[in-house]
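quick one
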Amino acid sequence: MSETARVAILMGSQSDWSVMKRAADVLGELGIACNSKIISAHRKPGRLADFIDEAHGAGVEVFIAGAGMAAHLPGVVASQTNRPVLGVPIESGSLKGMDALLSIVQMPPGVPVGSLGLGAAGAKNAGLLAAQILALADPELAERLAKWRADAAAALPEDPEDE
Ligand code: RP5
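structure w/ 5-O-phosphono-beta-D-ribofuranose:
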């Protein structure tokens, strides 16, 4: 684990990466180092516990966890850390992510997960929300974030065009 990673991005499977990459991409645009790992709560529970210990030691401040189907990864991460955990439900399987959404959003009281929306939009917003959390105590990051938001707003066209 990189000593400089401030955010850990975890996912249940290689098949989640194309979505979770949106979180890594936006963190990269904001100059925030992150560490991405495949760690399934069901298939690799031992790897999960070891990773969280290591991440605490390395100074990770926010966890982002994405999973599909019976998506327990964000909740299990939250059970093992007091640092913020953001959950991203992935569209997969016959229920198209509705199962993952309900698993992630419906945490028992006392073990919170901040649940984002389904899929790519949720992953991107998880990256941005992680940045907003970090920016509370990092004025330089707060400036970069404000510029990122202003640039995104400026890039929005006013007039629609035929595609
Ligand atoms: C979940 O099951 C993963 O997060 C993934 O979204 C889903 C399917 O996994 P694979 O069968 O593609 O590995 O645990």
